[in-house]
Protein backbone atom coordinates (compact mmCIF):
# COMPACT_ATOMS: atom_id res chain seq x y z
CA UNK A 1 0.00 0.00 0.00
CA UNK A 2 2.94 2.34 0.54
CA UNK A 3 3.70 2.52 -3.16
CA UNK A 4 0.12 3.01 -4.31
CA UNK A 5 -0.74 5.60 -1.65
CA UNK A 6 2.43 7.63 -2.13
CA UNK A 7 2.15 7.46 -5.92
CA UNK A 8 -1.36 8.88 -5.99
CA UNK A 9 -0.62 11.19 -3.07
CA UNK A 10 2.24 12.84 -4.95
CA UNK A 11 0.16 12.92 -8.14
CA UNK A 12 -2.63 14.63 -6.20
CA UNK A 13 -0.22 17.21 -4.79
CA UNK A 14 1.01 17.99 -8.29
CA UNK A 15 -2.60 18.30 -9.45
CA UNK A 16 -3.43 20.83 -6.72
CA UNK A 17 -0.26 22.76 -7.44
CA UNK A 18 -0.94 22.85 -11.19
CA UNK A 19 -4.47 24.10 -10.67
CA UNK A 20 -3.31 27.14 -8.73
CA UNK A 21 0.14 27.51 -10.34
CA UNK A 22 0.09 26.16 -13.91
CA UNK A 23 3.89 26.08 -14.09
CA UNK A 24 3.84 23.19 -11.60
CA UNK A 25 2.82 21.01 -14.55
CA UNK A 26 6.41 21.37 -15.75
CA UNK A 27 7.60 19.89 -12.45
CA UNK A 28 5.26 16.96 -13.05
CA UNK A 29 7.00 16.31 -16.36
CA UNK A 30 10.42 16.36 -14.65
CA UNK A 31 9.19 13.86 -12.03
CA UNK A 32 7.51 11.56 -14.57
CA UNK A 33 10.10 8.78 -14.91
CA UNK A 34 11.03 8.69 -11.24
CA UNK A 35 7.41 8.57 -10.11
CA UNK A 36 6.69 5.85 -12.67
CA UNK A 37 9.59 3.68 -11.48
CA UNK A 38 8.70 4.11 -7.82
CA UNK A 39 5.13 2.99 -8.54
CA UNK A 40 6.22 -0.07 -10.53
CA UNK A 41 8.67 -1.04 -7.80
CA UNK A 42 6.05 -1.09 -5.06
CA UNK A 43 2.59 -1.75 -6.54
CA UNK A 44 1.35 -4.60 -8.75
CA UNK A 45 -1.52 -2.39 -9.88
CA UNK A 46 0.97 0.14 -11.27
CA UNK A 47 3.05 -2.63 -12.82
CA UNK A 48 -0.01 -3.84 -14.68
CA UNK A 49 -1.02 -0.29 -15.65
CA UNK A 50 2.32 1.24 -16.57
CA UNK A 51 0.92 4.15 -18.52
CA UNK A 52 -0.91 5.74 -15.58
CA UNK A 53 2.05 7.98 -14.77
CA UNK A 54 2.24 9.05 -18.42
CA UNK A 55 -1.42 10.02 -18.47
CA UNK A 56 -1.09 11.85 -15.16
CA UNK A 57 1.81 13.96 -16.47
CA UNK A 58 0.12 14.60 -19.83
CA UNK A 59 -3.11 15.54 -18.08
CA UNK A 60 -1.33 18.00 -15.80
CA UNK A 61 0.41 19.66 -18.74
CA UNK A 62 -2.97 20.04 -20.47
CA UNK A 63 -4.62 21.39 -17.30
CA UNK A 64 -1.71 23.75 -16.78
CA UNK A 65 -2.02 25.20 -20.27
CA UNK A 66 -5.77 25.71 -19.88
CA UNK A 67 -5.41 27.26 -16.43
CA UNK A 68 -2.63 29.50 -17.69
CA UNK A 69 -5.04 30.98 -20.21
CA UNK A 70 -7.79 31.30 -17.62
CA UNK A 71 -5.56 33.13 -15.15
CA UNK A 72 -3.81 35.34 -17.72
CA UNK A 73 -4.33 39.08 -17.62
CA UNK A 74 -5.14 41.08 -20.72
CA UNK A 75 -1.56 42.28 -21.16
CA UNK A 76 0.11 38.88 -21.00
CA UNK A 77 1.89 37.68 -24.14
CA UNK A 78 2.39 34.10 -25.21
CA UNK A 79 4.84 34.33 -28.09
CA UNK A 80 6.76 31.31 -29.32
CA UNK A 81 10.52 31.39 -28.76
CA UNK A 82 13.08 30.76 -31.50
CA UNK A 83 14.53 27.64 -29.79
CA UNK A 84 10.99 26.21 -29.59
CA UNK A 85 10.40 26.84 -33.30
CA UNK A 86 13.74 25.24 -34.14
CA UNK A 87 12.79 22.19 -32.05
CA UNK A 88 9.63 21.79 -34.12
CA UNK A 89 11.68 22.12 -37.31
CA UNK A 90 14.26 19.55 -36.16
CA UNK A 91 11.75 16.93 -35.10
CA UNK A 92 9.72 17.62 -38.23
CA UNK A 93 12.76 17.10 -40.45
CA UNK A 94 13.74 13.97 -38.51
CA UNK A 95 10.28 12.57 -39.25
CA UNK A 96 10.65 13.42 -42.94
CA UNK A 97 13.94 11.47 -43.07
CA UNK A 98 11.96 8.31 -42.33
CA UNK A 99 11.25 8.33 -46.06
CA UNK A 100 14.78 7.04 -46.69
CA UNK A 101 15.69 5.30 -43.44
CA UNK A 102 16.84 1.71 -44.19
CA UNK A 103 14.66 0.03 -41.54
CA UNK A 104 11.33 1.82 -41.51
CA UNK A 105 9.64 -0.69 -39.21
CA UNK A 106 12.20 -0.26 -36.42
CA UNK A 107 12.20 3.50 -36.91
CA UNK A 108 8.43 3.71 -36.61
CA UNK A 109 8.61 1.65 -33.43
CA UNK A 110 10.98 4.22 -31.97
CA UNK A 111 8.68 7.07 -32.97
CA UNK A 112 5.66 5.29 -31.54
CA UNK A 113 7.54 4.88 -28.27
CA UNK A 114 9.08 8.36 -28.04
CA UNK A 115 6.55 10.46 -29.97
CA UNK A 116 4.19 11.16 -27.04
CA UNK A 117 7.15 12.23 -24.87
CA UNK A 118 8.40 14.57 -27.60
CA UNK A 119 4.99 16.21 -27.83
CA UNK A 120 4.46 16.44 -24.06
CA UNK A 121 7.96 17.29 -22.79
CA UNK A 122 9.77 19.05 -25.62
CA UNK A 123 6.90 20.95 -27.26
CA UNK A 124 4.04 21.53 -24.78
CA UNK A 125 5.61 21.63 -21.31
CA UNK A 126 7.89 24.66 -22.03
CA UNK A 127 4.78 26.73 -22.81
CA UNK A 128 3.96 26.57 -19.08
CA UNK A 129 6.99 28.73 -18.25
CA UNK A 130 6.75 32.46 -18.87
CA UNK A 131 8.84 34.30 -16.28
CA UNK A 132 11.03 34.02 -13.18
CA UNK A 133 8.17 33.28 -10.80
CA UNK A 134 7.12 30.26 -12.84
CA UNK A 135 10.62 28.83 -12.63
CA UNK A 136 10.70 29.45 -8.89
CA UNK A 137 7.47 27.48 -8.53
CA UNK A 138 9.00 24.61 -10.51
CA UNK A 139 12.05 24.54 -8.23
CA UNK A 140 9.88 24.57 -5.08
CA UNK A 141 7.78 21.67 -6.30
CA UNK A 142 10.75 19.71 -7.55
CA UNK A 143 12.26 19.86 -4.08
CA UNK A 144 8.95 18.77 -2.57
CA UNK A 145 7.86 16.03 -4.98
CA UNK A 146 11.12 15.12 -6.71
CA UNK A 147 12.89 15.05 -3.36
CA UNK A 148 10.16 12.82 -1.90
CA UNK A 149 10.56 10.36 -4.78
CA UNK A 150 14.32 10.19 -4.19
CA UNK A 151 13.79 9.58 -0.46
CA UNK A 152 11.22 6.86 -1.10
CA UNK A 153 13.33 5.16 -3.77
CA UNK A 154 16.57 5.28 -1.78
CA UNK A 155 15.24 4.14 1.61
CA UNK A 156 12.16 2.09 0.72
CA UNK A 157 12.77 0.92 -2.84
CA UNK A 158 13.79 -2.61 -3.83
CA UNK A 159 17.09 -2.28 -5.64
CA UNK A 160 18.81 -4.65 -8.00
CA UNK A 161 22.43 -4.23 -8.95
CA UNK A 162 21.75 -0.69 -10.15
CA UNK A 163 18.07 0.11 -10.60
CA UNK A 164 14.71 -0.37 -8.92
CA UNK A 165 13.13 -3.77 -9.47
CA UNK A 166 9.73 -4.34 -11.05
CA UNK A 167 7.46 -5.78 -8.38
CA UNK A 168 6.47 -9.38 -9.02
CA UNK A 169 9.04 -9.96 -11.76
CA UNK A 170 10.51 -13.41 -11.12
CA UNK A 171 13.58 -12.54 -13.18
CA UNK A 172 14.30 -9.48 -11.00
CA UNK A 173 14.12 -7.18 -14.00
CA UNK A 174 15.37 -3.68 -13.25
CA UNK A 175 14.01 -0.34 -14.37
CA UNK A 176 16.36 1.96 -16.23
CA UNK A 177 18.76 3.24 -13.52
CA UNK A 178 19.60 6.32 -15.57
CA UNK A 179 16.06 7.66 -15.19
CA UNK A 180 16.02 7.70 -11.39
CA UNK A 181 19.60 9.03 -11.43
CA UNK A 182 18.59 11.89 -13.72
CA UNK A 183 15.77 12.86 -11.36
CA UNK A 184 18.20 12.69 -8.44
CA UNK A 185 20.70 14.85 -10.33
CA UNK A 186 18.02 17.43 -11.11
CA UNK A 187 16.95 17.56 -7.45
CA UNK A 188 20.57 17.91 -6.33
CA UNK A 189 21.24 20.77 -8.75
CA UNK A 190 18.10 22.59 -7.64
CA UNK A 191 18.86 22.04 -3.95
CA UNK A 192 22.40 23.40 -4.20
CA UNK A 193 21.49 26.40 -6.36
CA UNK A 194 18.45 27.23 -4.21
CA UNK A 195 20.41 27.35 -0.97
CA UNK A 196 21.98 30.86 -1.10
CA UNK A 197 18.71 32.73 -1.76
CA UNK A 198 16.34 30.42 0.14
CA UNK A 199 14.57 30.99 3.44
CA UNK A 200 15.96 29.18 6.46
CA UNK A 201 13.24 26.53 6.38
CA UNK A 202 13.92 25.84 2.71
CA UNK A 203 17.67 25.74 3.39
CA UNK A 204 17.10 22.89 5.82
CA UNK A 205 15.26 21.03 3.07
CA UNK A 206 18.08 21.73 0.61
CA UNK A 207 20.72 20.50 3.08
CA UNK A 208 18.80 17.23 3.44
CA UNK A 209 17.98 16.65 -0.23
CA UNK A 210 21.33 17.47 -1.85
CA UNK A 211 23.18 14.50 -0.26
CA UNK A 212 20.16 12.22 -0.73
CA UNK A 213 20.16 13.02 -4.43
CA UNK A 214 23.90 12.44 -4.61
CA UNK A 215 23.68 9.06 -2.86
CA UNK A 216 20.83 8.02 -5.16
CA UNK A 217 23.06 8.72 -8.16
CA UNK A 218 25.86 6.66 -6.62
CA UNK A 219 23.48 3.82 -5.78
CA UNK A 220 22.32 3.65 -9.40
CA UNK A 221 25.92 3.49 -10.65
CA UNK A 222 25.32 6.39 -13.03
CA UNK A 223 28.69 7.97 -13.72
CA UNK A 224 27.42 10.38 -16.33
CA UNK A 225 24.76 11.81 -14.02
CA UNK A 226 27.37 12.39 -11.33
CA UNK A 227 29.68 14.26 -13.71
CA UNK A 228 26.78 16.21 -15.23
CA UNK A 229 25.55 17.22 -11.77
CA UNK A 230 28.95 18.56 -10.75
CA UNK A 231 29.40 20.55 -13.98
CA UNK A 232 25.86 21.95 -13.82
CA UNK A 233 26.23 23.06 -10.20
CA UNK A 234 29.50 24.90 -10.80
CA UNK A 235 28.38 26.73 -13.96
CA UNK A 236 24.88 27.39 -12.65
CA UNK A 237 26.22 28.84 -9.40
CA UNK A 238 28.54 31.20 -11.26
CA UNK A 239 25.61 32.46 -13.34
CA UNK A 240 23.23 32.66 -10.38
CA UNK A 241 25.59 34.69 -8.21
CA UNK A 242 25.31 38.48 -8.66
CA UNK A 243 28.56 40.02 -9.80
CA UNK A 244 31.10 41.29 -7.27
CA UNK A 245 29.64 39.13 -4.50
CA UNK A 246 31.92 36.46 -3.07
CA UNK A 247 29.50 35.22 -0.43
CA UNK A 248 27.47 32.90 -2.71
CA UNK A 249 30.66 31.47 -4.24
CA UNK A 250 32.19 30.76 -0.82
CA UNK A 251 28.92 29.12 0.17
CA UNK A 252 29.08 27.02 -3.00
CA UNK A 253 32.60 25.86 -2.10
CA UNK A 254 31.43 24.79 1.35
CA UNK A 255 28.43 22.93 -0.09
CA UNK A 256 30.54 21.13 -2.67
CA UNK A 257 33.05 20.15 0.02
CA UNK A 258 30.23 18.72 2.10
CA UNK A 259 28.84 16.78 -0.85
CA UNK A 260 32.28 15.33 -1.60
CA UNK A 261 32.54 14.14 2.01
CA UNK A 262 29.06 12.59 1.89
CA UNK A 263 29.80 10.97 -1.46
CA UNK A 264 33.06 9.48 -0.20
CA UNK A 265 31.33 8.04 2.85
CA UNK A 266 28.45 6.63 0.77
CA UNK A 267 30.85 5.11 -1.75
CA UNK A 268 32.86 3.35 0.96
CA UNK A 269 29.64 2.04 2.48
CA UNK A 270 28.46 0.66 -0.87
CA UNK A 271 31.77 -1.11 -1.25
CA UNK A 272 30.91 -3.40 1.66
CA UNK A 273 27.26 -4.00 0.78
CA UNK A 274 27.72 -5.87 -2.49
CA UNK A 275 26.96 -2.99 -4.85
CA UNK A 276 28.92 -3.11 -8.10
CA UNK A 277 31.65 -0.51 -7.57
CA UNK A 278 33.74 -1.77 -10.47
CA UNK A 279 31.81 0.62 -12.73
CA UNK A 280 33.61 3.53 -11.09
CA UNK A 281 37.11 2.27 -11.83
CA UNK A 282 39.13 4.01 -14.51
CA UNK A 283 39.55 0.83 -16.56
CA UNK A 284 35.82 0.06 -16.69
CA UNK A 285 34.91 3.66 -17.49
CA UNK A 286 37.48 3.80 -20.27
CA UNK A 287 36.12 0.59 -21.82
CA UNK A 288 32.55 1.88 -21.80
CA UNK A 289 33.65 5.21 -23.26
CA UNK A 290 35.55 3.50 -26.04
CA UNK A 291 32.53 1.35 -26.85
CA UNK A 292 30.28 4.40 -27.23
CA UNK A 293 32.80 6.30 -29.32
CA UNK A 294 33.37 3.28 -31.53
CA UNK A 295 29.64 2.92 -32.21
CA UNK A 296 29.29 6.62 -33.00
CA UNK A 297 32.36 6.56 -35.25
CA UNK A 298 31.07 3.56 -37.20
CA UNK A 299 27.77 5.31 -37.84
CA UNK A 300 29.49 8.53 -38.94
CA UNK A 301 31.70 6.62 -41.34
CA UNK A 302 28.61 5.24 -43.07
CA UNK A 303 27.19 8.76 -43.43
CA UNK A 304 30.45 10.26 -44.69
CA UNK A 305 30.64 7.57 -47.38
CA UNK A 306 27.85 9.25 -49.39
CA UNK A 307 27.58 12.99 -50.19
CA UNK A 308 23.78 12.77 -50.16
CA UNK A 309 23.78 11.00 -46.81
CA UNK A 310 26.21 13.54 -45.36
CA UNK A 311 23.95 16.41 -46.42
CA UNK A 312 20.49 14.95 -45.79
CA UNK A 313 21.31 12.15 -43.33
CA UNK A 314 20.96 8.39 -43.31
CA UNK A 315 17.42 8.66 -41.93
CA UNK A 316 16.23 8.85 -38.36
CA UNK A 317 16.81 5.74 -36.22
CA UNK A 318 19.01 4.22 -38.94
CA UNK A 319 21.69 3.52 -36.31
CA UNK A 320 19.70 0.42 -35.38
CA UNK A 321 20.25 -0.90 -38.89
CA UNK A 322 23.89 0.09 -39.33
CA UNK A 323 25.43 -0.49 -35.88
CA UNK A 324 22.75 -2.53 -34.12
CA UNK A 325 21.82 0.05 -31.46
CA UNK A 326 21.69 3.80 -30.95
CA UNK A 327 25.22 5.17 -30.46
CA UNK A 328 24.65 6.90 -27.08
CA UNK A 329 26.13 10.17 -28.43
CA UNK A 330 23.27 12.39 -29.55
CA UNK A 331 25.25 15.03 -31.51
CA UNK A 332 27.00 12.32 -33.55
CA UNK A 333 23.70 10.56 -34.12
CA UNK A 334 22.05 13.77 -35.34
CA UNK A 335 24.91 14.44 -37.75
CA UNK A 336 24.74 10.91 -39.15
CA UNK A 337 20.98 10.41 -39.26
CA UNK A 338 19.80 13.96 -40.10
CA UNK A 339 22.93 15.08 -41.93
CA UNK A 340 24.43 18.54 -42.07
CA UNK A 341 20.97 20.06 -42.47
CA UNK A 342 19.70 18.52 -39.25
CA UNK A 343 22.96 19.26 -37.44
CA UNK A 344 22.69 22.93 -38.37
CA UNK A 345 19.23 23.11 -36.77
CA UNK A 346 20.44 21.16 -33.70
CA UNK A 347 23.35 23.57 -33.22
CA UNK A 348 20.92 26.44 -33.77
CA UNK A 349 18.84 25.25 -30.82
CA UNK A 350 21.87 25.02 -28.54
CA UNK A 351 23.31 28.28 -29.84
CA UNK A 352 20.12 30.30 -29.40
CA UNK A 353 19.70 28.86 -25.90
CA UNK A 354 23.27 29.87 -24.99
CA UNK A 355 22.66 33.32 -26.45
CA UNK A 356 19.46 33.49 -24.41
CA UNK A 357 21.38 32.80 -21.20
CA UNK A 358 23.82 35.55 -22.14
CA UNK A 359 20.97 37.98 -22.77
CA UNK A 360 19.25 37.02 -19.52
CA UNK A 361 22.43 37.69 -17.60
CA UNK A 362 22.72 41.06 -19.34
CA UNK A 363 19.16 41.95 -18.36
CA UNK A 364 20.08 41.26 -14.74
CA UNK A 365 23.20 43.45 -14.77
CA UNK A 366 21.61 46.05 -12.49
CA UNK A 367 18.89 43.90 -10.95
CA UNK A 368 19.50 43.29 -7.23
CA UNK A 369 16.75 40.65 -6.93
CA UNK A 370 18.57 37.35 -6.16
CA UNK A 371 15.56 35.36 -7.35
CA UNK A 372 15.99 36.65 -10.91
CA UNK A 373 19.67 35.68 -10.90
CA UNK A 374 18.72 32.29 -9.47
CA UNK A 375 16.20 31.69 -12.26
CA UNK A 376 18.85 32.43 -14.89
CA UNK A 377 21.47 30.22 -13.25
CA UNK A 378 19.04 27.36 -12.65
CA UNK A 379 17.83 27.19 -16.25
CA UNK A 380 21.40 27.26 -17.52
CA UNK A 381 22.42 24.54 -15.05
CA UNK A 382 19.55 22.23 -15.98
CA UNK A 383 20.24 22.68 -19.69
CA UNK A 384 23.93 21.90 -19.16
CA UNK A 385 23.03 18.87 -17.04
CA UNK A 386 20.95 17.38 -19.85
CA UNK A 387 23.42 18.36 -22.56
CA UNK A 388 26.23 16.49 -20.80
CA UNK A 389 24.00 13.42 -20.58
CA UNK A 390 23.26 13.49 -24.32
CA UNK A 391 26.98 12.96 -24.93
CA UNK A 392 26.90 9.56 -23.18
CA UNK A 393 23.38 8.15 -23.31
CA UNK A 394 21.17 10.26 -25.52
CA UNK A 395 19.50 10.14 -28.89
CA UNK A 396 17.59 12.85 -30.69
CA UNK A 397 14.25 11.26 -29.88
CA UNK A 398 15.11 10.98 -26.18
CA UNK A 399 16.67 14.46 -25.84
CA UNK A 400 13.32 15.92 -24.88
CA UNK A 401 14.52 17.68 -21.72
CA UNK A 402 17.30 19.45 -23.63
CA UNK A 403 14.71 20.82 -26.03
CA UNK A 404 12.36 21.75 -23.18
CA UNK A 405 15.00 23.74 -21.31
CA UNK A 406 16.20 25.46 -24.49
CA UNK A 407 12.63 26.47 -25.33
CA UNK A 408 12.06 27.67 -21.75
CA UNK A 409 15.15 29.88 -21.94
CA UNK A 410 13.76 31.45 -25.10
CA UNK A 411 10.46 32.09 -23.32
CA UNK A 412 12.13 33.86 -20.40
CA UNK A 413 14.19 36.04 -22.75
CA UNK A 414 10.97 37.21 -24.43
CA UNK A 415 9.42 38.22 -21.11
CA UNK A 416 9.32 42.00 -20.72
CA UNK A 417 11.22 42.12 -17.45
CA UNK A 418 11.41 45.94 -17.34
CA UNK A 419 7.65 46.37 -17.68
CA UNK A 420 7.04 43.71 -15.05
CA UNK A 421 9.36 45.45 -12.58
CA UNK A 422 7.73 48.80 -13.25
CA UNK A 423 4.27 47.29 -12.70
CA UNK A 424 5.44 45.69 -9.45
CA UNK A 425 6.86 49.03 -8.30
CA UNK A 426 3.59 50.81 -9.05
CA UNK A 427 1.65 48.22 -7.09
CA UNK A 428 4.04 48.63 -4.17
CA UNK A 429 3.29 52.41 -3.87
CA UNK A 430 0.33 52.88 -1.49
CA UNK A 431 -2.57 54.95 -2.74
CA UNK A 432 -3.29 58.31 -1.06
CA UNK A 433 -6.21 58.06 1.38
CA UNK A 434 -7.71 61.37 0.19
CA UNK A 435 -6.48 62.03 -3.36
CA UNK A 436 -8.80 65.05 -3.85
CA UNK A 437 -6.98 66.97 -1.11
CA UNK A 438 -3.80 67.33 -3.19
CA UNK A 439 -5.50 68.50 -6.37
Overview of this structure, please?
The chain has one domain. The C terminus is likely disordered. The protein is mainly α. Helix content is 73%, strand content 0%. The radius of gyration is 23 Å and the shape is globular. The N and C termini lie far apart (69 Å).
Describe the secondary-structure layout.
Blueprint: H1 2-20, H2 24-42, H3 44-48, H4 52-71, H5 82-96, H6 104-124, H7 132-156, H8 177-194, H9 200-219, H10 223-240, H11 247-271, H12 282-304, H13 307-312, H14 319-322, H15 330-363, H16 370-390, H17 400-414, H18 417-428
Helix pairs in contact: 1-2, 1-4, 2-4, 2-7, 2-8, 5-15, 5-17, 6-17, 7-8, 7-9, 7-16, 8-9, 8-10, 8-16, 9-11, 10-16, 12-15, 15-16, 15-17, 16-17
Quick description:
The chain is mostly helical and 439 residues long. It is 73% helix and 0% strand. The protein is globular.
Counted by DSSP, the helix tally is 18
Shape descriptor: globular
Helix and strand element order: HHHHHHHHHHHHHHHHHH
Poorly predicted runs are 418-439
Structural class of the helices, strands and pairings? mainly alpha
- Mean pLDDT, rounded to whole units? 86
Number of self-contained structural domains: 1
Major sheet size, sense and barrel closure: none
β-strand percent reads: under 5%
Distance between the termini: 69 Å
